[in-house]
Design a protein that fits this description.
This protein has 699 residues and is of the alpha+beta class. Helices cover 27% and strands 26% of the residues. Strand 18 (593-601) and strand 19 form a beta hairpin. The N and C termini lie far apart (78 Å).
């Protein structure tokens, strides 16, 4: 950092004016002004006097990598309660997502992808779980001024509401078990938290604001500014610390810009009311209140004590989630070392690996002449000692078939039809991109469809994985209407920029699909943003894309028709297998289960569902009744009536129940909900379909 900007910063933080410094060192104010503006530099003997006046040493002035100790000390600033008595009992944005490390991995990694700096290189993301206990935990609490925070935590924990109960659980876990889980997310080759502390920019969007999305690329995954809330939602203590290396200098510096943010509910402490959020930083002498905290430039030792050290000076940000927890159910196969609690770092380690591989396998896939967009890894420590070695996510292991399909597309080795094992077939399907409301015409985008044979490691086969420019998995949907005997496959739909730089109307398709994604970014459909930017019926273009994609997949996986000799066919019909049929004893079969669902919203606003049922051996005597319900975040799910329920394959509908064909192992039916029974419009809701089963008509 140049001497002038550094000196100006020290004067601001220490509350000294240029005239006061000049008086202390025996020079004129004009001399000090010349140093600050860069027109002159002080002599060595003058630097000694400046060091004495600022209460620092010569090394600090010569290196200028840290602030002097003359500035106001690092402390917590809590936002005062609202003058009108308003109260917020938590950050509403945090409730848009579950406190699930899998959701966190999806949202945080997407944000890192969106901020990729050098587009010729991947953004590198590393997740580090670090369990602290004993002396290591005590030292960390001292470093974050825990004694100052504790009264606020205790006041929040006494409140009988959701955030208060979560804080109480976090305090109990830390004190009763003497442990605290830190989860750090580091990204490299990213923009970093650039910009002013308060004005519009990346820093303010993350640290100061809600629902502010400062994305720099048209293919960005996020658009709501909600994803960052998962950082605080994953912390039982509502506390996140940040260390950012900037891609653009701020105040003449780029490295070790630190800030902390705490999100608590409204509370009363020390006879005063506090609104909710608090910031950990250096008091800002330019703010209206001298207590307002802003970011500060830390030294290496301070960063290390906060567990925020970065491995290089490459731009990017480290987010430290304090008191990380995972409320999601245990994924099958993630038990380790006999640890059964939901907050096991072993379990969280495996769930992070699973989420990264499932959602970002495509972003981590490259071609012969193209680097991947992303590299990701997970490691786990306990009191600074490696507990689980760093594991890099390999898409060829987590999603071998889908990775093979995308790599063939990137390398130009696809074929028109599948004739041999390991091949990848490719075709294109149209997406009619509508024009923005009142702004000219749209155009036809050609999305890419890839199909290859399925491998066991890829999960359930016979589905289409959809994605756009950032190559994050948006949705995996089953392909309806497949002929019996179809070989297991995986299909991938690449739209927008993911379809290639030469794809027509890629920019327009990217913007259209981005507007059609909800905050969870897990489907394409009707949204308020889509209605505002395009026509009310624009979402039907997505329905058309889905229909065309499913048709293209069915064509690519269709088995060639075999021609039989006429005489042989006549002879075959006359033959019969002799011998007496032996009946094997059977055990009671379990009920049929819904295996796959494909749902769309028709022009009348009704849900149209195609469902595939898996029937266990001997289970064809069950008579299940399909029930449609609205998916709600809390409370009982409202039941919807069917306006139509029809059989498609291996079954018939009798009085609202499904009767299976004898010996059938799978069946398909379709249903359309009755719009008059919808408490809210379908475009603003989710749908759950259940099977109520009565065997043989008996309860």
């Amino acid at each position: 950092m140049d001497f002038g900007p550094w000196l100006a910063r020290q004067l601001k933080q220490s509350g000294l004016s240029q005239a006061e410094l000049a008086q202390r060192i025996g020079l004129t104010r004009a001399a000090v002004s010349a140093w600050i503006t860069g027109r002159a530099t002080p002599r060595e003997e003058t630097i000694n006097k400046i060091a004495e006046a600022l209460g620092t040493d010569l090394g600090t002035i010569h290196t200028r990598t840290a602030d002097t100790l003359a500035g106001l000390p690092i402390s917590w600033y809590h936002r005062p309660g609202h003058a009108d008595g308003g109260r917020e009992f938590g950050n509403a944005a945090a409730f848009a997502f579950e406190a699930d490390v899998g959701v966190l991995a999806r949202e945080a990694t997407q944000n890192s992808l969106d901020e990729r700096l050098d587009l010729a290189q991947p953004v590198r993301v590393r997740y580090t779980l670090h369990e602290l206990s004993g002396e290591a935990l005590a030292r960390f609490r001292d470093e974050i001024r825990w004694d100052d925070l504790l009264p606020h935590y205790e006041a929040a924990a006494e409140q009988d509401q959701k955030v208060g109960r979560m804080v109480a659980a976090g305090l109990r876990d830390m004190y009763e078990r003497d442990r605290l889980v830190l989860l750090r997310i580091d990204d490299y080759n990213a923009s970093g938290l650039t910009g002013d502390d308060y004005e519009t920019g990346r820093f303010a969007a993350v640290v100061r604001r809600q629902l502010d999305s400062q994305k720099s690329i048209s293919g960005a995954g996020g658009s709501y500014g909600l994803g960052k809330a998962t950082l605080w939602a994953t912390s039982r203590l509502g506390l996140v610390l940040m260390n950012s290396t900037l891609s653009e200098p701020h105040e003449g510096r780029t490295e070790r810009r630190l800030i902390g943010r705490l999100d608590l509910p409204w509370r009363e402490v020390g006879g005063k009311s506090w609104a909710g959020p608090a910031w950990f930083g250096r008091p800002d002498p330019d703010a209206d209140s001298v207590d307002v905290a802003r970011s500060w430039w830390a030294d290496e030792e301070s960063v290390g004590r906060l567990h925020l050290s970065r491995e290089s000076a490459e731009p990017g940000t480290s987010f430290l989630i304090v008191g990380a927890h995972d409320v999601a159910s245990l994924a099958e196969g993630t038990e380790s070392e006999g640890v059964e609690d939901d907050d096991s770092v072993h379990r969280m380690h495996n769930r992070l690996l699973d989420a990264l591989g499932r959602n970002f396998w495509a972003a981590m896939t490259g071609g012969e002449a193209q680097r991947p967009l992303l590299e990701a890894s997970v490691r786990t420590l306990r009191n600074g000692v490696e507990l689980i070695p760093e594991t890099r996510v390999d898409p060829r292991v987590t999603q071998p078939s889908r990775t093979r399909a995308l790599q063939a597309f990137l390398d130009g080795t696809t074929v028109e039809r599948l004739t041999e094992s390991g091949q990848v077939a490719m075709t294109t399907v149209p997406l009619g991109v509508p024009a923005l409301a009142g702004r000219g015409n749209g155009g036809e985008h050609r999305a890419v469809v890839l199909v290859t044979e399925a491998e066991d490691a890829d999960g359930k086969p016979n589905g289409v994985t959809t994605m756009r420019g950032n190559r994050m998995t948006v949705r995996v949907a089953w392909v309806p209407g497949l002929p019996v005997g179809t070989n297991p496959f995986h299909a991938v739909l690449l739209a927008g920029h993911a379809a290639g730089e030469g794809a027509p109307f890629a920019d327009e398709a990217e913007a259209f699909l981005r507007a059609s994604e909800p905050p969870e970014h897990d489907k394409w459909g009707q949204t308020e943003e889509l209605r505002m930017l395009y026509s009310p019926s624009a979402y039907r273009r997505i329905t058309g894309l889905t229909t065309q994609t499913n048709k293209a997949v069915r064509d690519l996986v269709a088995l060639p028709t075999k021609k039989r000799n006429g005489g042989s066919e006549r002879l075959r019909k006359r033959l019969a297998v002799g011998g007496r049929k032996v009946t094997r004893p059977t055990t009671a079969a379990g009920p049929p289960t819904l295996e796959e669902l494909d749902a769309q919203i028709n022009g009348d606003g009704a849900w149209c569902v195609t469902a595939e049922v898996k029937i266990p051996a001997g289970g064809d005597s069950w008579r299940p009744a399909p029930v449609a319900k609205l998916d709600v975040r809390s409370g009982p799910r409202p039941v919807l009536a069917w306006s139509e329920l029809v059989a498609v394959h291996n079954c018939e509908v009798v009085g609202g129940t499904i009767h299976f064909a004898p010996g059938a192992r799978n069946a398909t039916f379709r249903g359309t909900t009755d719009v008059s029974t919808h408490p809210v419009r379908a475009v603003f809701s989710g749908l759950v379909v259940e099977l109520r089963t009565d065997k043989g008509g008996q309860a």
